[in-house]
Amino acid sequence: MTPPTPHTTRPLRILILGLHYTPESTGNAPYTSALAEGLTARGHQVRVITAHPHYPEWRIRPGYGAHTSHETINNVPVTRLAHYVPPTPTNLQRLLSELSFGLRLMTTRWARPDVLLLVSPALFSTALALTRARLLHRRLPVGIWVQDLYSLGLAETGTGGGRATALMRRIESATLRHATSVAVIHDRFKLALVTKLNVKHTTIHVIRNWTHLPEPPAFDRVQVRKTHGWLDTDTIVLHAGNMGVKQGLENVVEAARLADEQQLPVRFVLLGNGNQRARLEQQGTNISRLQFLEGVPDADFQATLGSADILLVNELPGVTEMSVPSKLTSYFSTGLPVLGATDPTSVTAGELALSGGGVQVNAGDPAALLAAVRTLAADPARQNTLGAAGLTHCRSTLSATAAVTRFDYWLQSLNADSDQTPTARLF
C-alpha cells in the first residue's frame, strides 16, 4: 500500500542519534545507514551522530577511535564519538557502554534540527539523549525507532532477575512514553508496547525493516563453495549474523555433533561474530561438520549466502517477541529456503509463515533441527518453492523505497505536530 502524502514537502533538518552505523554490516547499522542516505536523497538535511564501528567484534576497528571525528559517507555528514567498548560484553558492561555513549550525546553539539530521531538499541543512550531534548530543546519533536525491546529480552532469555526486568520495563516504558512518537518494526512490537509498556497506541507507527542489500552481483557458486571448502555432496546450512545469547547457537553446535556421529553429508556454518563466538568455538572443538567464518564485505557476503543450500535462523527457546531477526530480509533476497529453529509462537515463525519462504522447527532441539535439514535436502522441489516464495515476499513487501517513504511521512508528521511534544519529566 502506498503511504499517504506527507503533511508538508519542505526539506527538514534531521538529526539521527544511534550507536551503530556503516561500516558495521549487522544489527541495525545497515538500516540506520540506508535510512539516512534515503532521506538525504529526498532532499532532507540529515546528520548522524554515532560511535566508532565496533560491533559485533566488540573492539574498535583499525583506522577509528579518535575522541571525536567527522566524515561524510554517501553525502551524509557523520560525527563519531569515542565511548567505552568492553572486551567481554556482560550485561553490566553493555550498560556502561551505552551510558558512556549517552553521556557523549548529552555533551555534543546538536545544532538546530527540526526533528530528532533516536535509534534503540541502544536504550540507555536513547534515554539520556531524550532527557537532554526534554530539558534543553522542549519544542523539538523526538521520534524513537525501536529495533529491539530490552525488557522482553531480559524476560525471554532469562539473563535478568525479576527486579532487573521490572526496572528495565520501567525505564523502557518511560523512555518510549515521553517520545513524541515511536516507530516499531513489527505489529507484535506495537502490541507489546501498548499492553506491557503502557505506550499510547496512537503514538506508535509500524514501519517494517527492508532488504538493505542491493541486487546480488554475479558470482560463481561453484568457486565460492570451493573457497570455503564446501563439498558438492554436502548440504550447507548457514547462519549469518550476531552470535549472542538470544541466538541460542549451542543448538546448532549440537546438531553438527549429531551429524558427525551419524556421518551425514551436512555442514553447519556460523558466519559472523559476537560475544558468544569464543565459547561456541570451544564447545564445537573437533566437530568436523561445524565451521566458523569471519564476517565478509557485502559483495562476498551475498555470494556466501547465495552459495549455501539452506539459510538458518536459530533462537533461544522462549524468545518469542523480543526481536525480529534482521537477517530474514537478507535471507529472503537469495531465493534460498529458510529454516527457523524457533518457538512456534515467535515473531520469526510468523514471518516465515507470512512469507511462505521457510519452515519452522522447535527451538533448542538439535535432533529436530538436523531432521528438518535432512527432509529439506531430500526435496529439491520444496527448496525451490520456498526460495521462490521468499524472494517474491522480499520484492513485494520488503522494499527499501516504500520503507523510506513511510519514514519520510512519519518524520514530516512529527515536525507538523511539534506543538504537541510532551514536556513532562522523563522519570
TrEMBL record:
SUPFAM superfamilies: UDP-Glycosyltransferase/glycogen phosphorylase. Pfam families: Glyco_trans_1_4 (PF13692), Glyco_trans_4_4 (PF13579). The keyword rRNA processing does not apply. GO terms for molecular function: hexosyltransferase activity. InterPro entries: Glyco_trans_4-like_N, Glycosyltransferase_grp1. GO terms for biological process: carbohydrate derivative biosynthetic process. Keywords: Glycosyltransferase, Transferase. The keyword Glycosyltransferase applies. Residues 27-210 form the Glycosyltransferase subfamily 4-like N-terminal domain. It comes from the Bacteria. This is D-inositol 3-phosphate glycosyltransferase. It comes from Cryobacterium melibiosiphilum.
